[in-house]
Write a structure and sequence with these properties.
By secondary structure, the protein is mostly helical. Among the domains are: 126 residues; 64 residues. Helices cover 86% and strands 0% of the residues. The chain is flat, with a radius of gyration of 53 Å.
Length: 410
């Protein structure tokens, strides 16, 4: 609400300043028109007019500066009345910096306008004097120069107004955007904290529930037979994993050897192709030789091909023999692959539920065994025929850790 009132006040102030500037420009235009109508013709009067314009420009800038200071003073008083000085210290400093920046830019614009106007005026006056000397039409040259100067001043004033207005609007938007972003970030951080706390609480609750469930299951199913079954399954799994790793290594080695054999065969075929091309080239070169020469060449070629065929057959037979020596033919390898695939499929079907059950059973058995071991250590001094010992031992009265090896292996 206070921000809206402040904005409304600033808009009214801007409208008032625009009206004052408009009135000042109208007054200046009226005076210039009056001056032009009076038709000051000589250089001295023109110089006097320029001095008057500069003086009026300085006076206008000083008046604007005083108005700006009064406006700042009034705003500061309003903020103090509304009690915003403490809360909005940073905002006040921002506003003052923005106003100072706008004022500096305005002064810089005024100086630049003054320089441009003065330079342009001097250039135009020289040009008009030269043309007036040539044509004898000094009055028309002056009028055109005056008109250009007025247009320049109007453009400079418009640019200065637009720049100041843009600075003020940018400052307002920046202040609002920062405040909005700060509030949004704060709300987002609070929401993140609440969500993180909820997630932590749910995770703790799930862990407690899972521990309670595992403990109950272990107590319910932690008997001797289940423990034996668990150990047997663990042994079978370890054996299966070791066998699978061995088979995997063997399969990798076979694949590597097959690849080497294929590369050798490919190289042999490439060599044969090169030789055949060379022979065809030689035959073309020897085209025109006698029938006898061709017959000898044909026989030699047949002999070479026969030797190559023999070499290829020996390599293939050697490869098959090597496969048989390494543990079976390709059919057996395919059978082995099918078995492995089937086993993996079955393991996936049993899935994680079975593994979870075994893990919980193992954990429950381990806790139960530790409790029994502690109880057995307390009963170590009792008589030999005692039947109240740990139920998983044979009725010999032996307790865990006895030196004769009668206790159950842990």
């Amino acid at each position: 609400m206070r921000r809206e009132e402040r904005r409304r006040g600033e808009r009214e102030e801007q409208e008032r300043r625009r009206g004052e500037r408009r009135g000042t420009r109208e007054e200046r235009r009226r005076q210039e028109e009056e001056t032009r109508r009076r038709g000051e013709g000589d250089e001295e009067r023109g110089e006097e007019t320029r001095r008057e314009e500069r003086r009026r420009g300085e006076e206008t800038r000083r008046e604007e500066k005083r108005r700006e200071e009064r406006r700042q003073e009034r705003r500061r008083g309003e903020r103090e009345e509304r009690g915003e000085e403490m809360r909005g210290g940073e905002e006040t400093r921002r506003e003052e910096r923005r106003q100072e920046r706008g004022r500096r830019q305005g002064e810089r614009g005024d100086k630049e306008r003054g320089k441009e106007t003065g330079e342009e005026t001097r250039r135009e006056e020289k040009e008009e004097e030269r043309r007036g000397d040539k044509r004898g039409d000094e009055e028309r040259g002056k009028e055109r120069g005056e008109e250009r100067r007025r247009e320049k001043r109007r453009q400079g004033e418009r640019r200065g107004d637009e720049r100041r207005r843009g600075d003020e609007e940018r400052g307002e938007r920046r202040g609002e955007g920062k405040e909005t972003r700060r509030e949004e970030n704060k709300e987002e951080e609070e929401g993140d904290k609440e969500r993180e706390e909820t997630r932590r609480e749910e995770r703790r609750r799930g862990e407690r529930k899972e521990e309670e469930r595992g403990r109950r299951r272990g107590e319910r199913r932690g008997d001797e037979e289940r423990g034996k079954e668990t150990r047997r399954e663990g042994d079978e799994e370890r054996e299966g994993e070791e066998t699978g790793e061995r088979r995997e290594r063997e399969e990798t080695r076979r694949r590597r050897e097959r690849g080497d054999r294929r590369r050798r065969q490919k190289e042999t075929r490439r060599e044969e192709t090169r030789e055949r091309r060379q022979e065809r080239r030689q035959e073309r070169r020897r085209e025109g030789a006698g029938e006898e020469t061709r017959r000898e060449e044909t026989e030699r070629r047949k002999e070479r091909e026969r030797r190559r065929e023999e070499t290829r057959r020996r390599e293939e037979e050697g490869g098959e023999r090597g496969d048989e020596e390494r543990g079976g033919t390709r059919r057996e390898e395919n059978e082995e692959k099918k078995k492995k695939k089937k086993k993996r499929k079955g393991e996936r079907r049993r899935g994680r539920k079975e593994r979870t059950r075994r893990e919980e059973t193992r954990r429950g058995d381990e806790e139960r065994r530790q409790g029994e071991r502690r109880r057995g250590e307390r009963r170590q001094g009792e008589r030999k025929g005692d039947r109240t010992g740990p139920k998983r031992h044979r009725p010999t009265g032996k307790t865990p850790g006895s030196p004769d090896g009668q206790s159950s292996p842990d």
